[in-house]
Amino acid sequence: MQKGNTRISMAVIRRLPKYRRYLSELLDKDIHRISSKELSKIIGFTASQIRQDLNNFGGFGQQGYGYNVEELHSAIGKILGLDHSYNTVIVGAGNIGQAIANYTNFEKAGFKPTAMFEINPKLIGLKIRDIEIMDADLLGTYIKEKNINIGIICTSKEKAQDVANVMVESGIQGIWNFAPTDLQVPEHVVLETVHLSESLYTLSYLLKHKREEED
Amino acid sequence: MQKGNTRISMAVIRRLPKYRRYLSELLDKDIHRISSKELSKIIGFTASQIRQDLNNFGGFGQQGYGYNVEELHSAIGKILGLDHSYNTVIVGAGNIGQAIANYTNFEKAGFKPTAMFEINPKLIGLKIRDIEIMDADLLGTYIKEKNINIGIICTSKEKAQDVANVMVESGIQGIWNFAPTDLQVPEHVVLETVHLSESLYTLSYLLKHKREEED
DNA sequence: TAGATTGTTAATCGATTAACAATC
DNA sequence: TAGATTGTTAATCGATTAACAATC
Questions:
Q1: Which residues bind NAD(+) (chains A, B) (predicted)?
Q2: Which tens digit of pLDDT belongs to each residue from B67-108?
Q3: If you average pLDDT over every residue of chain A, what do you get?
Q4: DSSP states of B24-91 as a string?
Q5: Quick check: B81 and A197 CB within 8 A?
Q6: Which of chain B's residues 37-96 bind strand D, using a 7 Å CB cutoff?
């Protein structure tokens, strides 16, 4: 799909899910054809940027016509790797861990939590939906045996690096980290961290500097 | 604090919380002085970028010496608006809403959830920690009466815009949105959206394209 | 065919990095 | 003072936008 051996910039990659989401909405509205100009109006990127972005991955459009919504939606899904499913584990059955486990949208998108892991004995053995909470000591073995692709870290920042190490040693391919810390992982392991407090502090900054910005 | 009337770029603003976090860690380790070069090693930005970033807000360093960690930490806290507290409400007492309500770190940083709002009658009247779950119909009145600064939206994407509208009409200053949709708010209201699925899909992309990237 | 719109190259803009004089 | 390191200007790099020939 990707053209030649050009490196795609992270800026482009992070826009792809947004394209896909808006294309989904168009499909819901039974709109099957869209030009970069029209898409620009609803998504807020320039038409030029949209065409540049998409052309990193191939020529999905047709001159004089625009883009076929279904086709583009499915192509972006494939590019993002949403055309097949992944096995995941959630480590930490606290607030965020439970929220992720309960959030069925991720499962619908192909990210299936197969088990949760905890150190708190009161939680071990319980289930969240059909997902069992297991003893954290079993994490490594489980990842190896069940062919887990993605590890989701929902522990405190103090425990997160240890958990990541176990995951890496057990052959995990990617880590989705919610602990408020920057983890160290080898180059072959993909890491994506959600820094909730950084997001909140950014909001706080903008709140404080709003008036100045309006000057 | 901010120099003249230069506009600070979002790229810089989004790095500020990370500076603050690493400076906190240094304080925990009783390190009271740091040069941009040393900070560069632990935080992963270039020393040049660190000096550029900080100089947007003033000259916090001293030639030949470096930066005083306490001073810089507190200065960045002030810049981010973390030197005073905010009243918040959480709308939606589902998975994410409950997780946010239970996550005491935000409260410690000055973002105090004063109430939650729900449409599900089974949840109305319950408490999460000391935070009462109230009828969503009372949201607007509550925001006005209690001087709420920040509204946290944890509803479905279908309800999110309506909730945002009520918040805006009631004089909210900022919205922290967890619903997977892009909200429309007037210019004077600050909006920060956490797109969890976009983060997950980015991870998925990187997973899929890992091997190619290693070529 | 004429009109529309892409794909792609070139121009611009902005952010990052390098360099170095100022100065502690 | 000499050494270290900032603050800041200049150079580079990368991303976005504009322009337009290609073509459906």
A1: 92-97
A2: 999 999 999 999 999 999 999 999 999 999 999 999 999 999
A3: 95
A4: HHHHHTT--EE-HHHHHHHH-S-HHHHHHHHHTT---EETTTEEEHHHHHHHHHHHHTTTS-EEEEEE
A5: no
A6: 37, 47-48, 51-52, 54-55, 59-67
Chain-chain contact of A105 with B180 (C-beta, under 8 angstroms): yes
| Annotated domain spans of chain B | 10-80, 86-198
What is the per-residue pLDDT for B63? 95
Pick the CATH number of A86-198 from 3.40.30.10, 3.30.930.10, 3.40.50.720, 3.10.20.30: 3.40.50.720
CATH architecture of the region A10-79: Orthogonal Bundle (1.10)
A191 touches strand C (CB under 7 A): no
CATH-assigned architecture of domain B10-80: Orthogonal Bundle (1.10)
Single pTM value for the model: 0.95
Which of A72, A86, A89 lies closest to A128 in space, CA to CA? A89
Q: Which of B15, B28, B78, B80 should we substitute to test contact with A (largest number of A Cβ atoms within 10 Å)?
A: B80
Are B13 and A98 within 8 A, CB to CB?
A: no
Residue with tokens 């190619």: B212
- Average pLDDT value for residue range B161-172: 98
| Structural contact between residues A163 and A97, judged by C-beta atoms closer than 8 angstroms | no
